[in-house]
Amino acid sequence: MGSRPVDEVLDAAAAGVHYSTLRLDELNINGSMTGEEQPTTSGVENGHQEPFVIGVAGGASSGKSTVCKMIIDQLRDQRVVVVTQESFYYGLSDEELVHVHDYNFDHPDAFDTELLLSCMENLKHGKAVDIPNYNFKTYKSVASARKVNPSDVIILEGILVFHDSRVRDLMNMKIFVDTDADVRLTRRIRRDTIEKGRDIKTVLDQYSKFVKPAFEDFILPTKKYADIIIPRGGDNDVAIDLIVQHIRTKLGQHDLCKVHPNLYVIQTTYQIRGMHTIIRDAATTTHDFIFYADRLIRLVVEHGLGHLPFKEKQVITPTGSVYTGVEFSKRLCGISVIRSGESMENALRACCKGIKIGKILIHREGDNGKQLIYHNLPKDIANRHVLLLDPILGTGNSAVQAISLLLKKGVQETNIIFLNLISAPQGVHVVSKRFPRVKIVTSEIEFGLNDDFRVIPGMGEFGDRYFGTDDYQSSTPFFCDEKNRVRLL
Ligand SMILES: Nc1ncnc2c1ncn2[C@@H]1O[C@H](COP(=O)(O)OP(=O)(O)O)[C@@H](O)[C@H]1O
Ligand SMILES: Nc1ccn([C@@H]2O[C@H](COP(=O)(O)O)[C@@H](O)[C@H]2O)c(=O)n1
Ligand SMILES: [Mg+2]
């Protein structure tokens, strides 16, 4: 396929066609399309783009896991998976267990490198794998393996991940976390006594007998293979930032927030990821779905309110001091897009006492045609800031209809904040292109749209799941097809 200017691609999307072929990773910074036109699924699944494999090595407690977490947090709109070398420790035999203090866990032979290699090769070729689940207390792998799906970015971290040349050769980027030996020892003492329940004498004995010599003999010599050496590990924000930028460039994917300055994705945390994991799970009960969706909606609403203009205000505290703060904007209303947007009304009411909430109903005919069929808006809406509520931004068609109506009613574009739980890049492009001054606040960016214009990975029909009118039950059987898509039986 030849190059197409970026505007043309976006216009095609805005016209309601080609959504399923618009991929952010086809847009390079110069605004041309790169690569084959593909349906909107993972590059891995399409077989045209291998995942980007990053190796993170360094001494024990140098901050490898911390660096990985920081990279993942910054790559928030990419699918990233971390594989740790620790998962591939050989289990100890009964005989070895008796003499566990003589076992060298820092020697390359302590790891099942053949199994690690085969898992990494499969992941690199887009196949899901089962990663062993190693238990540091029993010194054995537990029966239940961890299923790891292919992703855009695979991070392999561990003390000796650069030791075997075959493993190194799978890596697109090699990072060595270089932290002072005293710092590593201090952290190790804290971690092994608190988290692993070991006594300090055992920790120090293991350190001088095995950990320190192995660092010098096996780990430090692999530093020469690193493309990037990060001094001070997780404290080195600049290095992490540069690494993330490089990964994005290599993937041909650019931070949506940089492409669209009107887009605000709330800072992710493991709590937020955990809540998303629950509401995206097809097996989650209606009760749990509502509970966790409500928690996430509340976060999005609070974040959205933070974008309203404030006036400075001074108050006198009970100690007689002056506190200089701000005053909430008063001319505000919420507009929910029926039906799923109504699920966001309670959170808005809980944050803004007595707020007026209007409604818009858009009927979906197929997916190219969307028709506005009902609206009930506050009469003075033109003078208000509007929080537009819809948990899912997919193609952007409904949003365009809703925002067009608000503008027709005299609302200023800059006074509209569109609140979503999840947003597909296609929808973000479409809304931002038409209404660049509308702020979009969301909690996660999706991978894209499938051939039926549904958001993927998504969470199904939000309204049905929230209001309990769906047929997803915890017992609903499903399977993952060859492309790792969930199929209901
Ligand atoms: N920059 C840092 N400042 C303070 N503590 C840190 C820092 N980096 C890591 N830690 C702590 O040190 C311990 C080891 O870090 P971790 O990232 O797990 O190291 P590794 O994976 O290399 O063993 C953890 O308890 C972690 O919270
Ligand atoms: N049963 C085990 C297995 C490993 N170790 C130590 O873990 C360190 C590697 O983990 P990092 O997160 O620090 O990379 C390594 O130094 C092993 O000695 C252990 O103590 N017990
Ligand atoms: Mg670690």
UniProtKB/TrEMBL annotation:
InterPro entries reported in the protein's UniProt record: P-loop_NTPase (IPR027417), PRK/URK (IPR006083), PRTase-like (IPR029057), PRTase_dom (IPR000836), Uridine_kinase-like (IPR000764)
Domain Phosphoribosyltransferase: 268-469
Assigned keywords, A-Z: ATP-binding, GTP-binding, Kinase, Multifunctional enzyme, Nucleotide-binding, Transferase
Class of the enzyme per the UniProt entry, highest EC level: transferase
Pfam families: PRK, UPRTase
GO BP terms in the entry: CTP salvage; UMP salvage
Domain Phosphoribulokinase/uridine kinase: 53-239
Enzyme Commission number, as recorded: 2.7.1.48
Annotated catalysed reactions: uridine + ATP = UMP + ADP + H(+); cytidine + ATP = CMP + ADP + H(+)
Domain of life of the source: Eukaryota
Any one GO MF annotation of this record: uridine kinase activity
Gene3D superfamilies found in the cross-reference section: 3.40.50.2020, P-loop containing nucleotide triphosphate hydrolases
Gene Ontology CC annotations of this record: cytoplasm
Annotated metabolic or biological route of this protein: Pyrimidine metabolism; CTP biosynthesis via salvage pathway; CTP from cytidine: step 1/3; Pyrimidine metabolism; UMP biosynthesis via salvage pathway; UMP from uridine: step 1/1
Family from the record: Belongs to the uridine kinase family. In the N-terminal section; belongs to the uridine kinase family.
Protein name, UniProt field: Uridine kinase
